[in-house]
Amino acid sequence: MLNKSFKIRPLSDTFGAEIYDIKLSGEMASEDLAQIKALWNRYGILLFREQDIGKDELVGFSRLLGSLETHVRSEWLNETHPEILQISNINVDGKPVGALADGEVGWHYDQIYLPRPALGSLLYSVKIPPDGGSTFFADMTSAYERLPRALKDMVDGHQAIQSYDNFNSMYSTKTSGKQTNLTPNIAQPLVRTHPVTGRKALYLCPGMTIAIAGIDETESADLLEQLFDWTLKKEFVYKHKWNVGDGLLWDNACTMHRREPFDGGYERLMYRTTILPPNDRSVPF
Q1: Rounded Cα distance, 196 and 185, in Å
Q2: In the chain, what are the domains?
Q3: Beta strands 85-88 and 99-100: pairing type?
Q4: Contacts with 172 (C-beta within 8 Å, 6 or more apart), sequence order
Q5: What is the pLDDT of residues 235-284, one digit of tens each?
Q6: 248 phi/psi in degrees, rounded to 5
Q7: Please, are residues 127 and 230 in contact by the beta-carbon 8 Å criterion?
Q8: Is residue 2's pLDDT more than 70?
Q9: In the 3-class helix/strand/coil scheme, how is the chain assigned residue by residue?
């Protein structure tokens, strides 16, 4: 049963919810935390507005959800809190302090390219431009459940090749030699079973999925195009317009996302933590 102090508002018809009247903290009451976890599993995305929290609180709350990963892009980690990856277009002494600058960032799953992909990401807005830079999410659980039978038969049981290098070549900067060695192309299930809820979702994205393993190249490209078109139907997509102080928690086992570009004349700074799955359910299946 939901705590009476919690008020929620659905963000779309199929997924996502805003939770009111709660401050994120590493010292959250156990009953509140349990309900947040339950709502996260139910909705896939949770929005917490007007947070005004520090880095200690951001990391502390994130740790309540699972172990945190230190991102492979070490050049963009926060100096005092390496659990935080900075997403920013700000430059200091001629060097970017964060990832992804101000351009388009295409559809992707966080860390789908790793053997133990992230279960969740929490992004907190510190500084945002007056316009642009919205983040779009796609509900990959509903996309799979509503997939036409013929397409469902074609994807069940298959694996797809995920490439971090492909994403970086289009939307970011290339990794160093050491980072590249840590992130080779990898095969993941095309349909992923959620490690907590057991629900199935499509596990592919235009930014990182380059082929379906074991089938002809032309057939693979055609099938991926059909799947990408299907997952981006309006009924599966939520657009989030940021305010300063927004904390947005999403589930990387069942949602993909993209960011629209914004005017680089304005500064944008976001802090992101990366939440790992339980050890006994860490490998996608």
Answers
A1: 26
A2: 8-278 (3.60.130.10)
A3: parallel
A4: 99, 100, 105
A5: 999 999 999 999 999 999 999 999 999 999 999 999 999 999 998 999 99
A6: -120, 120
A7: no
A8: no
A9: CCCCCCEEEECCCCCCEEEECCCCCCCCCHHHHHHHHHHHHHHCEEEECCCCCCHHHHHHHHHHHCCECCCCCHHHECCCCCCCEEEECCEECCEECCEECCCCEEEECCCCCCCCCCCEEEEEEEECCCCCCCEEEEEHHHHHHCCCHHHHHHHCCCEEEECHHHHHHHHCCCCCHHHHHHCCCEEEECEEECCCCCCEEECCCCCCEEEECCCCHHHHHHHHHHHHHHHCCHHHEEEECCCCCCEEEEECCCEEEEECCCCCCCCCEEEEEEECCCHHHCCCC
- The Cα–Cα gap between 84 and 76 comes to 9
The angle formed by the CA atoms of residues 140, 141 and 146, to the nearest 5 degrees, is: 95
State the residue for tokens 């940021």.
242
* Residues near 249 by beta carbon (within 8 Å), at least 6 away in sequence: 40, 45, 46, 47, 48, 65, 120, 121, 122
* Angle between helical axes of 30-43 and 55-65 (0-180°, round to 10): 70
Mean pLDDT score of the chain, rounded to an integer?
A: 96
> Distance between terminal CA atoms of the chain?
31
Q: What is the pLDDT of residue 5?
A: 62
CA distance 77 to 60: 17
Amino acid at 50: E
The identity of residue 279, as a single letter, is: N
* Residue owning tokens 């200690």: 56
Q: What is the dihedral of CA 123, 284, 100, 76, to 10 degrees?
A: 80
CA distance 25 to 56: 9
Q: How many angstroms separate the CA atoms of 129 and 61, rounded?
A: 26
Q: How far apart are CA 106 and CA 136, in angstroms?
A: 10
